Amino acid sequence: MTLHATPQIPLVDLDLLRTLDAIAESGSFSAAAGIVHRTPSAVSMQVRRLEEIVGRPVFLRDSRSVSLTADGEFLLAHARRMLAFNRKAMAHFIAPELRGTVRLGAPDDVIERFLPPMLRRFAESHPCVVVDVVVNDSHNIRRSIQKGALDIALVTDSSQGAAETPAEEVLREPLVWASCACGVAAGQDPLPVSVWNEGCAWRNAGLAALDRAGRRWRIALQSAHLAGQRAAVLADLAVAPIPAAALGGRIVEAPPAYKLPPLPSYSLGMIVARDAEAPILAAADHLRASFAKCGA
Fold first, then answer.
1. pLDDT tens for residues 200-233?
2. Torsion angle, CA of 161/162/166/170, rounded to 10 degrees?
3. Which of 186, 181, 175 has the alpha carbon at shortest distance from 249?
4. What is the pLDDT of residues 224-250, one digit of tens each?
5. pTM of this prediction?
6. Has residue 1 been placed in a domain?
7. 262's torsion region: left (phi>0), alpha (psi -120 to 50) or beta?
8. Domain extent for 88
9. What's the CATH code of the domain at 210?
10. CA quadruple 272, 274, 279, 282: dihedral positive or negative?
């Protein structure tokens, strides 16, 4: 009787999976190269090797973007599970010195635009530190850290209450008037404006600029959430003062023909609790460095 060897199922190296994850997170081979500390050509070679192992393409490429195929999305889910298992196992043996919980408060636009990748990278480098996030407006976040209910606060009204609890500036962004592409809201009189709750730096800057310019305005929508502002702009019901980096798709800067007054930059500030312990300081350092890259 002839015995036939059972085909061996190939093993996928964790380095290949980490590169796959980095490309999916950053959206490009060149950006992923910086994350995994390899050259872009080495990243391309890793992707080719990965595709040879699975026998199928995992990325769709064109001159401007990279996206996952259906097989790539399946493999990415597996990659993230395996990388998480590896971090957990290594934490058991390495026994990192930093352990604990960090209570972080931030407005919803900061959560939506910045925090997910930042906190994910922090979890990878500090697997035994848990970060619990509270979403609220800047005014309530500042009050919470003053009461000791938070360890780190990110606030957009960083000038308010500075005497009691100074906020360290971690990011400065220019504000612009957002409108719907081909919309007409920016030409109405009085100008319909979508704003955040009172105390918001974006709201204050926008309304103050209109008052200085003698432009009549009315509040068409008030919401504590960025999604509400975007909905109003996309429906061409209002214009809104938002960071230039938040523009995209059909949300564009209002054309110069409407002569809306220029807007200043705004500051995102960070407040760290007094007598913060090592895990909190590590999280604050990580956020500080991450926001510095955003502004670079």
1. 888 989 999 999 999 999 999 988 788 888 899 9
2. 100
3. 181
4. 788 888 899 999 999 999 999 889 899
5. 0.72
6. no
7. beta
8. 14-94
9. 3.40.190.10
10. positive
